[in-house]
Amino acid sequence: MAPTDALSITALTPAAMEGCLALSAEAGWNQSAADWDVFFRGGTVFGIGDAHRPDATGAVLPYSGGFGWVSMVLVTAPQRGKGLGTRILCRCIEALGAQGLCPALDATPAGERIYRPLGFRTQLGLTRWRGMGGGAVPAGVRPLAPTELSVAAAADAAAFGAERGALLRDLLDRARAQAFRTAEGTGFVLARPGRQALQIGPLVAESETEAATLLDAALARADGPVLLDLADRWTALAAQLRARGFTPERPFNRMALNRAEPFGNPARLMMVAGPELG
Ligand SMILES: CC(C)(COP(=O)(O)OP(=O)(O)OC[C@H]1O[C@@H](n2cnc3c(N)ncnc32)[C@H](O)[C@@H]1OP(=O)(O)O)[C@@H](O)C(=O)NCCC(=O)NCCS
Which residue owns the Cα nearest ligand 1 atom 24? Predict the structure, then answer.
């Protein structure tokens, strides 16, 4: 299909927030204004079309560790199949490349159709699970205090592959009572409210057993719908979720441009922060 060349790509400002939220809601995504704001403050949101009501978006978030995240690749349904998604993705790749960063992302099956031809390779598989909160906080974990953020940031950096303490601070501020750590500091979990559901993640742990306790704690503090993105290798955690009535909603593939080797340490990465953040 021939690409649409008439529309240029611009860097959007927070004045586009309503239009951005309309695009993510149209796709059935969970992001809130606070989620979009992460990209306006810490990265760049590119848009095609009206500066307040874009037809397409794509965002970049630079991380340390030699890579950056590509997010919010969205095209309004009537404009799909005209090359807008590919064009905005190429702009995101260019923006991260200019900073010497390898573009990485969590791809939906629809997104993979445009990422793979450009050279993105799969690093690991994830599944989005949906269910309900409930239960009691188990022994072995305690609330993560704001003064202990460095404990979580160190564990996250080892698992994810980049130091992102400022982002975790933002997530912790939004976590209300849904942030826990293990006594040893090897594991932690955060959660934040979204448009439709509480998003649990990141959840970093030394073992699946440790992760199971952190998951129970986060779920105990959730009193409504919950979404989380679990790495596919963790079959015991998947069984725990099924036993709680959770169902798999959609697959994601973590991909990076010309790089199949994962960043960080996937043996510690249980649940990601969300496909938009990695
Ligand atoms: C994924 C998405 C951004 C693609 O945007 P788009 O503007 O339609 O993409 P393009 O027009 O550049 O598509 C490139 C090619 O993939 C094809 N394609 C795109 N989406 C497809 C889909 N869902 N199923 C089958 N083919 C698809 C297009 O036909 C085109 O093929 P061609 O150029 O060889 O004819 C858009 O479908 C979308 O917003 N989806 C919902 C949100 C989402 O999943 N985003 C990705 C997050 S990782």
Answer: 110
CATH numbers and ranges of domains, the chain: 9-118 (3.40.630.30), 127-271 (3.40.630.30)
* Blockwise average pLDDT, block size 10, the chain, 278 residues: 64 98 98 98 97 97 96 98 96 98 97 96 98 96 95 97 96 91 95 97 98 98 96 98 97 98 98 98
Q: Say how far residue 202 (Cα) sits from the centre of its chain.
A: 9
User: How close are the terminal C-alpha atoms of the chain, in Å?
Assistant: 31
State the amino acid at position 231 in one-letter form: A
How many Å lie between the centroid of ligand 1 and the Cα of residue 244?
34
Instruction: Round to whole Å and give the CA distance between 126 and 202.
Output: 13
Q: Ligand 1: residues whose CB is within 6 Å?
A: 1, 27, 73-75, 80-86, 107-108, 110-111, 113-114
